[in-house]
Amino acid sequence: MNKQINNFFSFPELINEISARFVALGVVILSLPILVLLINNSSYAYILLGCLIYGFLARVTSGPKISPLALFVTKILVPKLNRRENLVPGPPKRFAQAIGLFFSIFTTIFFLIGLNFIALSLMSTLIVFASLESFLGFCAGCKVFKFLMFVGLIPSNTCEKCANYKF
């Protein structure tokens, strides 16, 4: 039973970069209406923020296993494109998903307590970085992960493939 739980809450060692970029596009597509709802001070933003938070939490805790967006991308969209996989290390992508989770949660908190400017700033930042990943393949979270490994805040055995990989 313990092994099943550990397998469920595992994250892939390697990630298809094309899938990661499409997931980031899905985050952008979901985040844009959230931004509009935040601007209009609409309580409907909470519904979409909940979906965004769930997606990030699902991907951080168990990869694509229970994330509707990641399942759609990895099981339907990318296979239909028939593109060759470009595998990249998974731990930095997990770290980037955790940053997205952090931004989503704090956007919700600041919106809830009426600090809309901060909520808008956080959501805008999330959109910018998800767009960079999606459209340019630039993963800022991966760069931060590698830097944190370089300075010793993340142990090098967390991602042995990262030591020689250029993000």
Distance between the termini: 36 Å
Main sheet attributes: strand count, strand direction, barrel closure:
2 strands, antiparallel
In terms of per-residue confidence, which ranges show pLDDT below 50 for 5 or more consecutive residues?
A: none
Helix content: over 70%
Beta-strand percent range: under 5%
**Tally of DSSP β-strands:** 2
Give Rg in angstroms.
16 Å
Structural shape: globular
Strand order of the largest sheet: 1-2
Q: Domains counted in the coordinates: how many?
A: 1
What count of helical segments does DSSP give?
7
Walk me through the topology.
Layout: H1 2-8, E1 14-16, H2 17-39, H3 45-62, H4 68-81, E2 87-89, H5 90-112, H6 116-136, H7 140-150
Task: Characterise this structure.
The chain is mainly alpha-helical and about 170 residues long. The protein has one domain. It is about 70% helix and about 5% strand. It contains 7 helices and 2 strands; from the N terminus they run αβαααβααα. It has helices spanning about 1-10, 15-40, 45-60, 70-80, 90-110, 115-135, 140-150; strands spanning about 15, 85-90. It has a two-stranded antiparallel sheet. The radius of gyration is 16 Å and the shape is globular. The model has no long low-confidence stretch (mean pLDDT about 90).
What features would you highlight for this structure?
mainly alpha; two-stranded antiparallel sheet; 7 helices; 167 residues; 2 strands
Quickly describe the structure.
With about 170 residues, this protein is mainly α. It has helices spanning about 1-10, 15-40, 45-60, 70-80, 90-110, 115-135, 140-150, and strands spanning about 15, 85-90.
